[in-house]
Amino acid sequence: MYLSYENRQQPVKIIEMAEQFNIPRNHLIKVVNKLAKLGWVETSRGRYGGVKLSIAPEDLKIGRVVGELEESLQLIDCDAGPCAFNLNCGVKTILDRALVQFMQELNQYTLADVVQGKTRQEIKHMHLSYIATDG
Q1: CA 20 to 30 Å from 30, out of 14, 52, 91, 133?
Q2: Alpha-carbon distance 91 to 25, whole Å?
Q3: pTM for the predicted model, two decimal places
Q4: Cβ distance 52 to 3 under 8 Å?
């Protein structure tokens, strides 16, 4: 969401995002690397390097983001532990169907949709305040 701010001249530094969102830098590096492998961001090194979106916000579906970034979307794992029903219950089927519906709902929205209105204003404020203090 932070990278969606369109009036930024230079790529965003990882340290900036880490400070803005109080996220450990090393964790953020892992996330950025994953986003780069997915082709959603471009990264560059050096003084003028950083991170920027490489996909239009209106082309990035929220369900796809959740699906790619979560290690597992499985709500329950019937193979993980002892279960008295031994896979003979309907809970997993219901949860699996609900998850499909959930992902379909998320995929009706894009990054552009979620960064509208007050969110867009907050992102702008964050960028401008950071640039004013550090840039």
Answers
A1: 133
A2: 40
A3: 0.82
A4: yes
How many CB atoms are closer than 10 A to CB 38? 15
pLDDT in tens, 77-135: 777 777 777 667 788 889 889 999 999 999 999 999 999 999 999 999 999 988 888 65
Q: What is the DSSP letter of 58?
A: G
Taking residue 13's Cβ as centre, other Cβ atoms within 10 Å add up to: 16
Q: What distance separates the 2 farthest-apart alpha carbons in the chain? A: 61
Residues paired with residue 111 on neighbouring β-strands, in sequence order: none
